[in-house]
phenylalanine--tRNA ligase (Helicoverpa armigera), 442 residues
Amino acid sequence: MTKLFLKTNRTLSAILSNYKYSTAAKSVAAVQIKGKEFISDDYTNVTPKILSYLGKNLHLQKNNPLSIVRQRIVNYFYSSFTHRGHPSFSIYDNLSPIVTTKQNFDDLLIPSDHPSRVKSDCYYINRDTLLRAHMTAHQSELLRSGLDNFLMIGDVYRRDEIDSTHFPVFHQVDAVRSQRKEELFPGKPDLEIFEPSFDVNNPHMFINSIDDPMKQSCHTLEATKLMETQLKSHLIGLTKVLFGDSIKYRWVDAYFPFTHPSWELEIYYENKWMEVLGCGIVRNEILVNAGPSNTIAYAFGLGLERLAMALYKIPDIRLMWSTDTGFLTQFENIDLNASVTYKPVSSYPQCTNDMSFWLPPNLTVDTFMSNDFYDLVRDVGGDIIEQVKLKDKFVHPKSKKHSLCYSIIYRHLERTLTQAEVNQIHKEIEKAVVDAFGVAIR
């Protein structure tokens, strides 16, 4: 049986080479990824553990629930949109996850001070290169290539907390649908996509505004409302294909830097509202910068893990990475639309160990980056780390020293862990934390 986690038999020095006392990634000469060398710098924070997930492509692996959901979504768009007997949407599901900051942020109008750019949220290879944080990072390059309707599917990477619903690698489906005037308003030459003040021949001369919550200043209200109606209709159709016609849903106004207006779709799942996707009308500046200046487009993005866990009642996101036949055979050769409820292969107990430490003088309970700690815990402990929770913050009233306490929950998905082996791994994590961040274990 293939193990779900990487045993901690490699030297801690190999792990600690990625950290230094400032809780930022250590600047080393270069990072090797799939035979290619990237010069590292003060932004480098990608870890060996994270790099080990590259190329796994769970969304393309037969019998994986992520692949089943992916295929159901693709089938919906293939059947719903055709042109002269051929699918209107093209599919891109094997794009490299290594992108530039320009692709991931600048091309999408994400401001330089936006919180999604910070090192604590992204896995940077260096200041100019990172592992994509969303599939939308490929939107502009595909638009520049002349595409108008396409799905982008793949793995994305974000630094986050550790629990049963969060993992540093997950999978997204993003889509763009563009339309020209004659497609949007067939047989209605009096209707326009753009306001009279917008010149499609000189689009860069127009300063587009999103001050109006109803539309972008370059678009007519008629064009925006028709695209909104199409977008919501198509996504409600997809939701009903996945969850059934009786599913309750609602739209919530949202904000994304790259769309306006924007919405989130929520479904009523297990007695509470759950967000399943974000969407909106693509900012016209993105279309103009990519080449097309006479179209209007909508876009959306959704996470495959969230959908698969809801559809198949999968309780732990780590199970998506399992190679255990007891898990995979439950999804083997099934009808894509079959109603499948995951049955636990086994139920193994948790082991919980707390870790308390004094921070060095240059750090406080508010400036210490928990995501740096989470990455180090995951690097040492592997995928038997089920959850890490910040349990307590403490400032000594006399010495003014700052202390943090984290609870680390261990659980193997395929066998029972002994407290002795958990204690050994816990000690290795303690040593790594001391060496990396200059803390003192309490």
Remarks:
- Residues 1-10, 20-27 have pLDDT under 50 and may be disordered.
- The CA atoms of residues 320 and 426 lie 25 Å apart.
